[in-house]
Amino acid sequence: MNASAAIEELLEKIKLLEIELIEELQKQQQEFSYEIYKRKVLFSENIILRHKQYTQQLLNYLIDTPLKHFLSIPFIWACLIPALLMDVTASLYQFVCFPIYGIPKVKRQDYIIFDRQFLHYLNLIEKLNCAYCSYVNGLIAYIQEIAARTEQFWCPIKHAQRLKKLHSRYQKFIEYGDAEGYRAYLEKVRHDFKDLE
Questions:
Q1: pLDDT in the model for residue 1
Q2: CA distance 69 to 59
Q3: Strand, coil or helix: what is 39?
Q4: For residues 70 and 194, what is the distance between their CA atoms, to the nearest angstrom?
């Protein structure tokens, strides 16, 4: 088995393990007695009442918060402005350019998920903090997927140096240094989005 085939096999195993991990995480839905209906998380009334027993009152939450956390608030929330600009820019970019290149659009709702507001054991500040984290982390994943699909179209060449983390399209890329393969397969790789259908 050559190196390319071995890499393909490993990437397929990783993909299967990710699917298995997601399925295992979804089993928690049964353990913690909730169901999802039209993107809304529903708990039974007795679970909601039990959750509310664990809600920390706002005043106690504020009293228990260390001063250094309060001092960091402006720096955390200042990041929201560039995040919103990146969101608008990336969304507009893919809306205009992806149809031109024939690249399938990234569904924003698959990455930016707001569902922690349905947890009745979180107080208002915790829910707001969770919404912020959900937005920014989801946005980064959304933008990474837009960038990955763009890279697959414009420069689908693997790196010579080791990467800390691979994005979702990297396994499609042509080997570093394979000049012949690059010229022979560039157009094929540019349009290989069948796995997204």
A1: 54
A2: 15
A3: coil
A4: 48
